[in-house]
Amino acid sequence: MDDTALKIDLAGLRRNVEEASIQAQINNSEETGGRHV
Q: How many angstroms separate the CA atoms of 11 and 14, rounded?
């Protein structure tokens, strides 16, 4: 693999991690204060 492919791959991984952490925050807020039954 060349440098550019590696950089693109790292950028994609970083984006996936950010999206996953945002999703986790949404899930946490729903669990703690979002659902009142």
A: 5
